[in-house]
Design a protein that fits this description.
- The structure is a homodimer of 411-residue chains.
- Chain A contains 16 helices and 16 strands.
- Chain A has 411 residues and is an alpha+beta fold.
- In chain A, strand 9 and strand 10 (271-278) form a beta hairpin.
- The interface between A and B is large, with 105 and 105 residues.
């Protein structure tokens, strides 16, 4: 085969990986839908004009842009926010607020040496068309419930507001044109020493006395009225223990206009896996209608990788198949098929071995694939009108009636 | 917004469409997994060398081929068979037979005036590494159960074998180099008059007496040994009423080597929605390992379109949300939030209205979005410790305790 490998940064998801991914997605969707979010899907390809809209040079360099067979200038989806802006603008009769989740890949020609993928599965939850703190609180509740549903026990949802951060800077005498770059340095305070960050700020041309004042201000700052409302509403939605006001949190992206949030999972030690906030001007800036919006992203690839690497879900099997019905001989094929069909009728995932081989080889197949049970129907079983059910994990076996086998497999 | 529209042939799936698509996919996956198929996903982008492999000129013209930002020659997935060939070749330790299903979009720059999409959701089920008729029979059983699970009552699974067709041609004296093109004409016999097909064959340079002999042969032909076995095994898997031996069935694609099958749904009148067969040489021809294989495609887009157009599933709602909790006043926000949260704890999909508006406006939102129930909690309800539950379809309302509301919504 000419090119056996996948492209760098692109992945095959073999069945055992899909088992985990599907379970992660199932749990997340259940939470999103419990909060009244519906699913949206958009095309992989869009017009370049749309993708490039207001994106910076850096993003443009990472985009997969090309001409299609009809010579249109097109490109692969770079994120899920630009398509959302397009959808709410071109479907203005959608009920507002529009609450949607979207789980689809985006494409970025990232440096893969940093362990980054180029086909990245994104998972975004957003509320478009509401400027109420209820919406911010609901996004926090979705994050809280999502992480719990994934089995993460100990995590913090850090929360801050761009408005608070900028007003602290203003009070410290930092000129407005430096606010965004200062915010980016401040954001590193959870990983870097204070002095290091101060040095970085000096390097960015901020005055020493302004920096000291800013650090003083950040020590004493409190949530403003809007953020206080968000926090108090979130508590009514059972988000309390995990919520942590963090005046130094600033998030990298420039488009946030109000509350910003980020989740840090502490047990297992995963680090940041969600990020989001309020972006009341972004949709208009992208060329869409002027809707306020708030939302979050969940790092789906990271979550799936961690669950697999740390074997957090040992109960998830490598296959959907619960039982393999073996075939004893040419003469008994039909008996095996009929038996399998009766088990399937009870909604138990059942495989039939696909040819006549030694029993040993058939059981090895089940073992390799991770099927937990096997059934043997030989002449002896036929005579006694029973099945031999092998538990391939416990390495035990028992002769049972079909009804009892079904009962056992249904558990 | 610069380019509001999607590219021609590409589609947004708004929530109401996603409700139907997700339900179709859920039902299909359940059947596939019941028969021991696991899910595989592969990247959207592959090396051009792989995609072009043995594809004809026609396919090449329809492909989305380009250079990525690292100047690699790449292209969008054209089908799910080429990636399957790559996966089984580069993962030779996968347990064999490898039974997988794959539901992902493929990209073809088709003429959209014919109502064709360019981002086509494909749904393939295949068994790789088995030359046993059990496998062919299982694919037939999966087709049979899939269509039943989608609620299609009356359908035919037409079955034939390329070997039978070719041997009839050989006996009729048709030269081997004409077999494939003759097969393509013969395939049209269910849509065209016999005389028209005969004329087409004459035009292809087939002798009149050979054509007449072929038509005679096809009248009397019977399933060969392999096909008879497939049919008899399929019957053990409950595929019987729907199965129909059709000596003129030939399928368009050249790569089938044995049994071929096609489903025609007669009620509702949908026509052909599955196609497949045995392709024992294709994987090797694509440059992969020499594995026999058999499988089928299900026309997912067509199925979803038909279900929507004919309103076959009126019970599928436009939204996942079961109930909207309205907000009576600023003072009562928290009460509404707490109530919503208690209902969510019972796994009922619950929305909260996102701001304080007139009740009328809130109910209109629920109506527009298709949420079937709404809850009102005003001062009166607070005093009586009840909720007002409105059934928005029946236009009735009742004061009930929270417990009774949950009971009613759980149905």
């Amino acid at each position: 085969m000419q090119k056996l490998q996948t492209l760098k940064g692109f992945r095959d998801f073999l069945p055992s990986k899909m088992m985990i991914r599907n379970e992660v997605i199932r749990r997340l969707k259940q939470v999103f839908e419990k909060y009244g979010f519906d699913e949206l899907q958009t095309p992989s390809l869009e017009y370049q004009e749309l993708l490039l809209g207001k994106c910076g040079e850096e993003a443009e360099k990472l985009m997969y842009l090309f001409q299609d067979p009809g010579n249109r200038k097109v490109g692969l989806r770079y994120d899920l926010t630009v398509p959302l802006a397009r959808v709410v603008t071109s479907n203005q009769d959608l009920p507002k607020p529009f609450k949607r989740y979207q789980i689809q890949p985006a494409y970025r020609a990232e440096n893969t040496q940093k362990g980054r993928y180029r086909e990245i599965y994104q998972c975004d939850i957003d509320i478009v068309g509401s400027s109420s703190p209820i919406s911010d609180a609901e996004i926090l509740a979705v994050i809280n419930d999502s992480l719990k549903s994934l089995g993460f026990e100990k995590f913090k949802i850090k929360i801050n507001s761009r408005k608070i951060l900028f007003s602290s800077m203003e009070k410290a005498g930092i000129p407005e044109d430096k606010w965004l770059t200062v915010a980016q340095s401040i954001d590193k305070l959870d990983k870097k020493e204070k002095d290091e960050v101060k040095k970085e700020l000096l390097g960015k041309g901020v005055q020493k006395n302004n920096i000291d004042k800013l650090f003083d201000n950040l020590k004493n700052v409190k949530p403003d009225k809007y953020l206080s409302e968000v926090i108090s509403l979130a508590k009514k939605l059972n988000v309390s223990k995990s919520l942590e006001f963090t005046p130094t949190l600033s998030r990298g992206l420039d488009y946030y206009t109000g509350p910003i949030f980020e989740t840090v999972v502490e047990e297992p030690k995963i680090g940041s896996i969600t990020g989001g906030g309020r972006y009341d001007k972004l949709l208009k800036d992208l060329g869409g209608v002027n809707y306020p919006a708030v939302g979050t992203s969940i790092g789906l690839d990271r979550v799936c990788d961690v669950i697999e690497e740390l074997n957090l879900w040992p109960e998830i099997l490598k296959t959907n198949s619960k039982v393999l019905v073996t075939i004893f001989s040419e003469k008994l094929i039909e008996k095996s098929l009929e038996t399998a069909q009766k088990i399937r009728e009870k909604n138990i995932n059942t495989e039939i071995f696909q040819s006549i081989e030694s029993l040993d080889k058939q059981l090895k197949y089940a073992d390799k694939k991770g099927i937990p049970f096997a059934i043997i129907i030989g002449p002896e079983e036929m005579k006694e009108n029973v099945l031999t059910l092998k538990d391939l994990n416990k390495k035990t076996q028992k002769k049972l009636s079909l009804e009892k086998v079904i009962l056992k497999l249904s558990k």
